[in-house]
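Schema walk-through. Below, the input block comes first and the output block second. Nothing else is stored per chain. Lengths vary across the set, and this one has 80 residues.
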Amino acid sequence: MKIQILGTGCSKCKALTEATEHAAKDLGVACEIEKVVDIAEIMSFGVMMTPALVVDGNVKVVGKIPNADEMKKILSDKTN
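--- output ---
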């Protein structure tokens, strides 16, 4: 699974990265986490607000940080 965190490195972007890492670890999900900071690349996803979470090329969350349960649901839905 490829997970991309879209954002310029603000505190919310860092928090989303941490939440994603924790949820993946708790679920035992093998994943590659990439941080995307280039504005043009972020916009290529159609995202106009950060942070955003992209799982295998699909935008799942924009402009917020999901709580632990929401994050686990997003990642586990992708693994089934």
